[in-house]
């Protein structure tokens, strides 16, 4: 069955690969699954036709026959569950890899997304400048804990997994701020993710949409 | 094998059931699984012994034989995967239920947690009072979308699932603000969750720890 995902017709990041379709493209590339992309214009995101697929009016969505999914975490978990290459076979190792998926999305990404709020959503507010270092320190606190756990390992728990795919994707969002580079082992971890051929193909595919 | 979870020795909410061990207790009760609880004193949360279980120094954790998990989302998914009652058998329905778990944690909870930041973490800052309505409006925006999707259904996708368990748990955190009650169908949805015998047992168990 054909897999169809949605992506921004024009990504707000101009092709830096930070929109969440890149994560899904990466997972599909790791799993060796071909896919089609339907580009959604900005003005169509909150239209009934798209809200039927994604109740929060965002991208990506995932369609495969009768199945419609949203939330990149759920989509990547679905891909990882149905194809080899993203989750270990051993039951306990698999549960731990899934734990890192949730950790990336619920413990690491929220403080990072606050940076978007303080800089852009509330960028014109009088408190923006004074709040920025507080937000940055909360990110540092979390990345410091993650850095300790990763130590000098290549990946978070044994071989590369969907947990690493998600964590690297989340950390990429904080790199432009300079905070990632304060943690050399995390910066190297992200670079290892980017060096994977599947990531490179995913990045190139989203860039091809946004660079034209 | 014995299941052991961790919880606060004294929950910051004084037993209102908003700490994340309640979600895990609820899932274990729905699955009919007995469990033990190890209470972690506040000063021990950042000690090496606890950080070995939870790299971010939080609760809950989950131990079962050799398996150690953290992140309530991952723990509940693990319980739901291994016992009946929390995920449908049909593959597509199962993928959609898992989608709602991720949606609760990555799309609905982050704006709600901003309320904790503006009120408590930054409660003494000069911008706190002026920021509060902005944060509240972002929560309203997301709950409005969720309210439309739920409509007059009892649960988010067919029968009660781990997706509803997670969404109800996340929405409970916003109820004290009064914002939940602006969406009557969501307030009724949360009340349906609380009325489940498994939730009542989970709530009572955490209250017994914190009310003494």
TrEMBL record, chains A, B:
InterPro entries per record: Glutathione-S-Trfase_C-like (IPR010987), Glutathione-S-Trfase_C_sf (IPR036282), Glutathione_S-Trfase (IPR040079), Glutathione_S-Trfase_N (IPR004045), Thioredoxin-like_sf (IPR036249)
Domain GST C-terminal: 90-211
Gene3D superfamilies: 1.20.1050.10, Glutaredoxin
Stretches assigned to the GST N-terminal domain: 8-87
Protein's UniProt name: Glutathione S-transferase
